[in-house]
Structures are given as structure tokens and as C-alpha cells.
Amino acid sequence: MGVTANWKGGVETEITTHPKNIGSKPAAKQFTYSIGEPEALLGDNRYPNPQDYLLGGMAGCMMVGFVAGATAKGIQLESVKLTIKGALDLRGFLDLDPNVSVGFEELQFNFEVAGRGTTEQYDEIIAHVQKVSPGYRTISDPVRISINRHLGIEQQEV
User: Taking 70 as the threshold, does the pLDDT of residue 156 lie above it?
Assistant: First the structure.
């Protein structure tokens, strides 16, 4: 599982997903999508920015877990809406203030559910999602990251 990012100019990046295995079965689906920035950050506002995708991935993973949990309990759902909000202080990203966090300091999420379950059942499912959602856990828990660098300059013949 992974992605490859290719710079397309300006602040636009094209992401291509890698094939993955679901259990022992290969899932050869490959997707390509673009990431951009709003005009205030030198973009053209044509594509979601990296934080939109980060929060969207977390929300999508949590939604799958919630719906699967409700289904496993035999709860019929009519609608589920998950809102995740957080604030970024751009002074951190722009390296203007060393006392400002670069990333989200807090994320708030809210499930709005209509269905045949009880509040207690929904709370139980949400607690389980927080325990087992890879998207949620990757953001909420420290993650070891390693970087391999290839900084060679490739020259093309003219």
C-alpha cells in the first residue's frame, strides 16, 4: 500500500495509488488524483489541499467502521454524517512563529446518525471505531516515519 507523488508545477501534485493486498488477495485498482492549494497559498483552488485529503481519509475510514459496526449489531441505519473540524495556524507552516504548531493541535469529530439504534449503541460503535480504525489511529497515535533520499540531479541531453 502506498502512493507516489509527482509535482505538476506550481503547488499542484498528482498522486497515484499503488496496488495493494486486501488480506492475501491483490486489489490491483490504481487511482490518480490531484492536490492543490487555495489562491492564498499560491494555488488556483482547483483541487482539495493535502489537509482536505488527510481529514477526508480519516472520515472515510471512520465511516466504514461505523457502518460496519452498526451492520454487525443488526442496526438499520437511515443516514450517517461525520463532520471533522480542525484549525491550522499558517504561521507554523510558513515558519513565521516557532511557538505555533505546524499541524492540527486538535480535531473535533461529530457523528449525526438516524436509524434504529440507541444512543448507547452508537456511542459503543464510535468507541470501537476509535479503537480499530487505521485512519483514526494513524492520526491519533505517533507513527514512525523513515525517509529515503535520492537527491541526485538528472540531466537530460539536449
Answer: no
